[in-house]
């Protein structure tokens, strides 16, 4: 039985920690010995409910040497075969702590792509230099998309032989669920999920839907944007200027996102930057027809199972939304194709199988 230690520097249940939790649960079910090291928080609480062995260690930042010592002490006690770290904080601290321990070191890069940038340029340079420096303590880096892999190789000079692309797995709940059958007179709901920030580009989604509504005044069409963030006030002002306050809904955070997805007719993503596109993948898994930004990560995820658009062109986006509203057969065909694409290439089971195969190749 292989001993695996997973390290996350974040204990919320946002994208990366949730992926770590699903990976830990899957490995445990496959017969691996799994221990999760993370700061106190929701991730630890849910891991314990899943009967996953956990160790709480506070991690104040990427250069918290007290945390490094505590993690190293725990690793020496556990004697793992593989230490698998995630995220900037977990990746830095975990690899520093394991650098003198005899085991294989795996790191998953969830963030950096050619289109992603931090507001503080100096901090961005610091992070990227640190990412490159930590590669010396790494046997293998997992990139969650081809876009991430290309960035590491082309922008940071990583050795491509050490990089493996393993996309984040889509929760099987979405593949098993079905879209709700609505009465014919029900409103058409366009759904979008993502933090309210400039990178998610919700202002273009709003402008595009406003154009569809103005061109089809009798159409009972609504846009629901799920998420919260700093651009809420500016988006509310835009919605008011467009005069469609009763049609565009900034829903905020929701408890069960899948329940919302099941009420959507079309999923819309206009992001300027995505590392993988988890929400897009979840929409595809449910069988929703998807209109998504024509950027590297989403080209990789969506392929020919959706419609890709220029995220800066609200006229073109409005045109594609109108097409799917009118051509229901096309929407159904794309939804079926999307569900199959996720099942075959981006499911949680595929992610788990690829990760285990990688672990075994490193240990053998």
List the helices and strands and how they pair.
Blueprint: E1 3-8, H1 15-29, E2 33-38, H2 42-49, E3 53-56, H3 65-78, E4 82-86, H4 88-98, E5 104-109, H5 121-134, E6 140-143, H6 146-154, E7 163-165, H7 172-176, E8 188-193, H8 202-215, E9 221-226, H9 232-242, E10 248-252, H10 257-261, E11 266-268, H11 278-286, E12 290-293, H12 296-302, E13 307-309, H13 314-326, H14 328-346, H15 348-363
Parallel strand pairs: 1-2, 1-4, 2-3, 4-5, 5-6, 6-7, 8-9, 8-11, 9-10, 11-12, 12-13
Walk me through what this model shows.
The mean pLDDT is 94. The protein is an alpha/beta fold and 364 residues long. It has helices spanning 15-29, 42-49, 65-78, 88-98, 121-134, 146-154, 172-176, 202-215, 232-242, 257-261, 278-286, 296-302, 314-326, 328-346, 348-363; strands at 3-8, 33-38, 53-56, 82-86, 104-109, 140-143, 163-165, 188-193, 221-226, 248-252, 266-268, 290-293, 307-309. Helix 11 crosses helix 14. The protein has 15 helices and 13 strands. It is elongated and about 70 Å long. Helix content is 47%, strand content 17%. Strands 3-2-1-4-5-6-7 form a 7-stranded parallel beta sheet, sandwiched between helices. It has a 6-stranded parallel beta sheet with strand order 10-9-8-11-12-13, with helices on both faces.
């Amino acid at each position: 039985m292989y001993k695996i230690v997973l390290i996350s520097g974040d204990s919320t249940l946002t994208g990366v920690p949730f992926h770590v939790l699903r990976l830990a649960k899957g490995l445990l079910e496959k017969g691996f010995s799994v221990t999760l090291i993370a700061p106190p928080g929701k991730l630890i609480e849910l891991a314990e409910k899943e009967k996953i062995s956990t160790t709480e260690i506070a991690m104040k930042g990427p250069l918290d040497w007290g945390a490094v010592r505590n993690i190293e002490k725990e690793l020496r006690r556990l004697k793992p075969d593989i230490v698998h770290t995630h995220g900037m904080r977990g990746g830095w601290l975990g690899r520093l702590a394991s650098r003198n321990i005899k085991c294989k070191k795996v790191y998953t890069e969830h963030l950096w792509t050619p289109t992603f940038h931090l507001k503080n340029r100096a901090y961005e340079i610091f992070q990227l230099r640190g990412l490159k420096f930590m590669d010396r303590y790494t046997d293998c880096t997992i990139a969650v998309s081809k876009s991430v892999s290309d960035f590491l190789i082309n922008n940071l000079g990583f050795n491509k032989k050490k990089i493996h692309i393993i996309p984040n797995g889509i929760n099987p709940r979405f593949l098993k669920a079905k879209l709700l059958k609505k009465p014919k007179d029900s409103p058409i709901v366009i759904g979008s999920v993502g933090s309210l920030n400039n990178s998610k580009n919700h202002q273009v989604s709003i402008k595009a839907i406003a154009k569809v509504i103005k061109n089809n005044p009798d159409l009972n069409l609504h846009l629901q944007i799920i998420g919260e963030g700093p651009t809420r006030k500016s988006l509310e002002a835009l919605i008011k200027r467009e005069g469609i306050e009763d049609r565009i809904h900034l829903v905020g955070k929701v408890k069960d996102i899948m329940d919302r997805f099941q009420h959507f007719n079309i999923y819309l993503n206009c992001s300027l930057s995505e590392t993988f596109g988890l929400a897009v993948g979840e929409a595809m898994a449910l069988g929703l027809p998807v209109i998504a930004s024509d950027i590297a990560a989403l080209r990789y995820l969506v392929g020919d199972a959706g419609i890709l658009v220029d995220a800066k062109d609200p006229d073109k986006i409005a045109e594609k939304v109108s097409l799917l509203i009118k051509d229901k057969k096309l929407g159904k065909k794309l939804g079926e194709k999307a569900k199959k694409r996720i099942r075959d290439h981006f499911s949680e089971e595929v992610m788990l199988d690829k990760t285990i195969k990688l672990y075994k190749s490193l240990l053998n």
